[in-house]
Design a protein that fits this description.
- The complex is a heterodimer of chains A (294) and B (87).
- Chain A is α/β, with parallel strands linked by helices and 294 residues long.
- Chain A has helices at residues 17-29, 41-46, 66-80, 94-99, 102-111, 161-166, 181-192, 207-210, 217-226, 252-255, 268-285, 289-293, and strands spanning 33-37, 58-60, 87-93, 116-121, 172-177, 198-203, 233-236, 239-243.
- Helices cover 37% and strands 14% of the residues of chain A.
- An eight-stranded mixed sheet of chain A has the order 2-1-3-4-6-5-7-8, sandwiched between helices.
- In chain A, strand 5, helix 7 (181-192) and strand 6 form a beta-alpha-beta unit.
- The termini of chain A are far apart.
- Chain B is an alpha+beta fold and 87 residues long.
- Chain B has a domain at 33-81: Alpha-Beta Plaits.
- Chain B is built from two helices and four strands, in the order βαββαβ.
- Chain B has a two-stranded antiparallel ribbon. In chain B, strands 2-3 form a two-stranded antiparallel ribbon.
- The N and C termini of chain B lie far apart (52 Å).
- Classes of the chains: A alpha/beta (294), B alpha+beta (87).
- Chain A binds chain B through residues 1-2, 4, 6-17, 19-20, 23-24, 46-56, 178, 181-182, 207, 213-219, and chain B through 5, 7-17, 20-21, 38, 40-50, 59, 61-62, 64-68, 70-72, 80.
């Protein structure tokens, strides 16, 4: 058995993207880490009392205040003189980050705590049964944005969380995807080497909520990046420092892999709108390969 | 207070999730493995271990049979076989 700080025996669904992302993050951070985690899938499946998957100190907070709890932990470490040797990671799902926990996160970023905040973005409230969140993509079919005669799913685009975090003037903001595991680990190590508040958002497919086969987790995450719908970027001190260059694929290739977008395949007008979102991302961040050589 | 609300690190290993597999399980052929480590990195159950070529294998006590390892292997050295097969 390989040494890991996130152990087997958790109760995530087969093919869960979040469980593998959590392991990559904590293994990159190492044993000298304290984790604060708000309510969500990750907390529920990894800490089924009286068992825990975690090999590091782990605190479960309320849904809204994981960033505040982590801030307290970091302040206590500072008082004890141990702040330099112990990392603090706050982690949450997309609902706990973009909707419910946003004020606590904003406070943490503004006060300048030395914490890495990790958002596992599975694009809806999967734990309670696939309700839409602020990070649910446009035209996605969820239980609170159902499709119908007059509805094609979620009417709003994703909340630009990396930009919101970046607007706080923090030293490091990054997005990552489970399709590139080494990239996640590199970004976590880089973030922990920087002092101050850091924000990281990891795209984690959910076979149950996105309605794709369990063995497609990595393939779907990869397509999201390759179509330009999930740009992998890094901001350092407010400046776009790095991005993953792509040769853009049409968005249909991503949409057709998932049940939550199935209704779009017969609706070329809506696909055009989704393609527009991808094109805007590609233009905004300069993701196209050829643009780099110019 | 109803007693200590803390748990021992890694105690979820008591919870064997192997019986969750419904259809198939991975079979590591151990022929063309190049030790790229991808199967280990992307296993959602952290139940794959190995170091060096052709040594990787999975832990049937925890594998839920999602099949991502078989899909990501660049050498097709992992295949999914039916759960009840004797292979």
């Amino acid at each position: 058995m390989s040494k890991t700080l996130f152990n087997s025996g958790h109760t995530a669904c087969a093919g869960c993207g979040q469980s593998l992302a959590a392991r990559l993050v904590i293994d990159a951070a190492g044993p000298n880490t304290i984790v604060a985690n708000n309510t969500g899938c990750l907390e529920v499946f990894s800490t089924k009392y009286p068992e825990t998957s975690w090999g590091v100190p782990f605190i479960h907070s309320l849904f809204e205040n994981c960033a505040a709890v982590a801030s307290g932990v970091e302040s206590a470490l500072k008082y004890l003189g141990k702040a330099d040797s112990i990392n603090v990671i706050a982690q949450a799902g997309d609902g706990g980050t973009a909707d419910i926990g946003l004020q606590a996160l904003s406070g943490m970023l503004e006060r300048g705590h030395n914490i890495l905040y990790v958002c596992y973005d599975n694009e809806a409230y999967m734990n309670t049964g696939i309700q839409r969140s602020g990070l649910t993509p446009f035209d996605s079919n969820t239980t609170t944005s159902p499709i119908g005669v007059k509805s094609t799913g979620n009417i709003r685009p994703k909340k630009p969380m990396p930009e919101i975090a970046n607007a706080h003037g923090i030293p490091y903001v990054a997005t990552a995807s489970v399709a590139f595991p080494q990239d996640i680990q590199r970004k976590v190590k880089k973030a922990l080497s920087i002092k101050g508040p850091k924000y990281m958002q990891i795209h984690v497919p959910c076979p149950l909520g996105w309605r794709h086969e369990t063995n497609l987790t990595i393939a779907v995450a990869k397509l999201a990046v390759e179509t330009g719908l999930y740009p992998l970027i890094e901001y350092e001190n407010g400046i776009l420092a790095a991005k993953r260059q792509i040769t853009p694929k049409p968005v249909e290739e991503y949409l057709k892999t998932q049940g939550r977008f199935k209704h779009l395949l017969k609706n070329p007008d809506e696909i055009k709108k989704v393609q527009e979102i991808a094109d805007n991302n590609i233009k905004k961040y300069g993701l196209k390969v050829s643009e780099a050589t110019n | 207070m109803f007693g200590p609300l803390t748990c021992k690190p890694g105690s979820s290993r008591n919870n064997k999730t192997g019986p969750w597999r419904t259809e198939s399980r991975p079979k590591f052929l151990k022929k063309n493995c190049i030790a790229c480590n991808m199967c280990l990195l992307i296993c959602p159950e952290s139940c794959i271990s190995g170091e060096g070529k052709n040594t990787y294998d999975f832990d049937p006590d925890y594998c839920k049979g999602c099949g991502n390892c078989a899909r990501i292997c660049p050498k097709q050295d992992i295949e999914m076989v039916k759960e009840d097969s004797k292979e």
